[in-house]
Design a protein that fits this description.
Order of helices and strands of chain A: EEEEEEEEEEE
Structural class of chain B: mainly beta
Order of helices and strands of chain B: EEEEEEEEEEE
Radius of gyration of chain B: 13 Å
Number of strands of chain A: 11
Oligomer: heterodimer
Distance between the termini of chain B: 37 Å
Helix content of chain A: under 10%
Number of strands of chain B: 11
Helix content of chain B: under 10%
Largest sheet of chain A: 6 strands, mixed
Number of helices of chain B: 0
Chain lengths: 114, 113
């Protein structure tokens, strides 16, 4: 059973601070890692993807991957109230027959306080 | 470019009925996956289709089924509905399933009464 674990939160940070979201996964063979943002009542939206160890930056977002520790994180710099949402970590793993399966964590709810 | 389109947006059904949900992927996307989202369980994988073939299935009972057509559009069917089937059903598409992130549709909110 492939598992993805996240702190459910809620994580509260003041506006302008750095929000740090963490995720661990069980399948050591996983190759692709994603962060999705989901606003209440909406569908998940892909915000970051990362495939190799290290950091990947996109605007105020930085994804970090450590395959040896089976750990993925997302940093949000200069947090804004509009960043308040649930953040879902997703890990893509090979399932056989040419198919890959995206397994999601249960999400961390982030609240950015003005 | 049009996104992933799911219809209908909302459904209310009675226990024991059956329901069919539809998903039109982004043009050119051949991989379509379905997920069930509930507050307690989060996003759970139902199945994945690629070129009209079901390549992968999650741990759901046989009441849940699906198919994909030659134009990549997909449908999922739930028969003999139970109260616990009330959930947001999300369809996601990708050019292929190996390493690229999925784009989700807006979902179908199913309520079973």
């Amino acid at each position: 059973q492939k598992e993805v674990e996240q702190n459910s939160g809620p994580l509260s940070v003041p506006e302008g601070a750095i929000a740090s979201l963490n995720c661990t996964y069980s399948d050591r063979g996983s190759q692709s890692f994603f962060w999705y943002r989901q606003y209440s009542g909406k569908s998940p939206e892909l915000i970051m993807s990362i495939y190799s160890n290290g950091d990947k930056e996109d605007g105020r977002f930085t994804a970090q991957l450590n395959k040896a520790s089976q750990y993925v994180s997302l940093l949000i710099r200069d947090s804004q109230p509009s960043d308040s949402a649930t953040y879902l970590c997703a890990v893509n793993s090979y399932s056989g027959a040419g198919s890959y399966q995206l397994t999601f964590g249960k999400g961390t709810k982030l609240s950015v306080i003005p | 470019k049009a996104g992933v389109t799911q219809t209908p947006r909302y459904l209310i059904k009675t226990r024991g009925q059956q329901v069919t949900l539809s998903c039109s992927p982004i043009s050119g996307h051949r991989s379509v996956s379905w997920y069930q989202q509930t507050p307690g369980q989060g996003l759970q994988f139902l199945f994945e289709y690629f070129s009209e073939t079901q390549r992968n299935k999650g741990n759901f009972p046989g009441r849940f089924s699906g198919r994909q057509f030659s134009n990549s559009r997909s449908e999922m069917n739930v028969s003999t509905l139970e109260l616990g089937d009330s959930a947001l059903y999300l369809c996601a598409s990708s050019p292929r399933s190996d390493s690229m992130g999925y784009t989700f549709g807006s979902g179908t909110r199913l309520t079973v009464v």
